[in-house]
Amino acid sequence: MATLETTFAGLKLKNPIIVSSCGLTDSADKNKKLCEAGAGAIVLKSLFEEQIMMEADWMGDPNMYPEGSDYLAGYIREHKLGEYLRLISESKKVCNIPIIASINCYQDADWINFAKKIEEAGADALEINILALQTDVQYTYGSFEQRHIDILRHIKNTVKIPVIMKLGDNLTNPVALINQLYANGAAAVVLFNRFYQPDINIDKMTQVAGDVFSNEADLSKSLRWTGIASAAVSKIDYAVSGGIHSAEGVVKAILAGASAVEICSVLYKESPAVIEQYNQFIAKWMDGKGMENIAQFKGRLNVGDVKGVNTFERTQFLKYFASHE
Fold it and tell me: For 188-230, what is each residue's pLDDT tens digit?
């Protein structure tokens, strides 16, 4: 019988299904249920640097009480951090699978010391999200990618637990960045983080939020870059995030070179029961293909395979539609 055990970021997972950072992972009780549902690992809901900074600035008006404002801002930061550290320690007590902390940051000044506290609280790994659009007309090419490297380097100098980089899809060359992240100590990368989806209400002529959930069409982009990057930078682990809405999607991600997948939207749309359904399907598929373990088919269809090159690196698609009139 096939075993679903896999290794991601140096962590041993009983299966490749990781619950992504979301509202479903913001309490120890919820995480216990996800663990019991069969998850291989859990990424805790992200702590957002921007949110903490905004709340601190809002609560502390320097025009009214300059000294009190600084004190209150500091208190808010420490309170939020304390809550998050308790989430880590309490989740570790009730879950027997890896618990991965997550921070969403745009600078590294405030996160270096906190990364150490995360490690002390018992997190098995730390996932770093650096999600931002580069819209400045004076933007210096490459500075956004360098920010990833700088933040990683500083955090790696602080902690010994594995550091995972979750990347946005707005990168000119993800492969080059992943290579630099590996050189600077990243244990794994996740492809890709999901941006806020904007929309427009034409009746009210206002900006509104778009669909917060991913869909199966989103998987193609992650498959492409996982298939390319896992062949070019093979010594780092990969996880696919976004567009996993079926067990077949998990198999596709592994064939492209991923060690694991992160799921979120499907859990909201359905229930944690899909985790066990996915695992059962993967095991059955592996048995049918004569596969005994994940390693036997991981990356089999990345661009290291001649048959995969023209699929993942192809940009011209007109001829595929020539017969459809």
Answer: 999 998 777 788 888 998 988 877 788 888 999 999 999 999 9
Tokens standing for residue 16: 């490749």
Name which of 210, 207, 179 is nearest 196 in CA terms: 210
Task: Report all structural domains of the chain as residue ranges with CATH numbers, in order of start.
Answer: 6-321 (3.20.20.70)
- 2 with 66: CB under 8 angstroms? no
Is the pLDDT confidence value at 166 over 60? Answer: yes
- Which region holds residue 115: left if phi is over 0, alpha if psi is between -120 and 50, else beta? alpha
Poorest-confidence range of 119-133, 206-220, 264-278?
A: 206-220
Residue 200 CB: number of other CB atoms within 10 A?
10
pLDDT tens readout for residues 8-65: 999 999 999 999 999 999 999 999 999 999 999 999 999 876 666 555 555 445 554 4
CA distance 134 to 140: 10
**pTM, rounded to two decimals:** 0.89
List helix spans (H) across the chain.
28-36, 49-59, 66-94, 112-121, 143-156, 174-183, 219-232, 247-256, 265-269, 273-289, 306-312
The amino acid occupying position 278 is Y
DSSP 99-138: EEEEEE-S-STTTHHHHHHHHHHT-SEEEEE-------TT
Residue type, 226: T
| 182-187: long-range contacts, CB 8 A cutoff, minimum separation 24 | 182/233, 182/235, 182/236, 184/149, 184/152, 184/153, 184/156, 185/152, 185/153, 185/156, 186/152, 186/156, 186/236, 187/9, 187/10, 187/125, 187/162, 187/163, 187/236, 187/237
Q: Which residues contact 264 (CB under 8 A, 6 or more apart)?
A: 19, 20, 21, 22, 24, 214, 241
